[in-house]
């Protein structure tokens, strides 16, 4: 995920449809600073939010110290043709 950049496409394939999302923004945030309501709160349009671990590993926390958050908006919906 760290290699994504604004404008890149993320394709989510389902049984009947494929959803194409376009990366709009990315941020790296300290684990203790994440506001879950802000990250996953209501949006007026469909959005995909991806979160993964980043930064240095903290023995005290038992995980990495940061989270990389990718925000992508729905840009296209296609019917799947098999």
TrEMBL record:
UniProt KW keywords: Hydrolase
Molecular function terms from GO: hydrolase activity
Highest taxon of source: Bacteria
InterPro entries reported in the protein's UniProt record: Sortase (IPR005754), Sortase_dom-sf (IPR023365), Sortase_F (IPR042001)
Pfam families: Sortase
UniProt keyword Hydrolase, yes or no: yes
Protein name: Sortase
Source organism (scientific name): Planococcus lenghuensis
Taxonomy of the source species: Bacteria, Bacillati, Bacillota, Bacilli, Bacillales
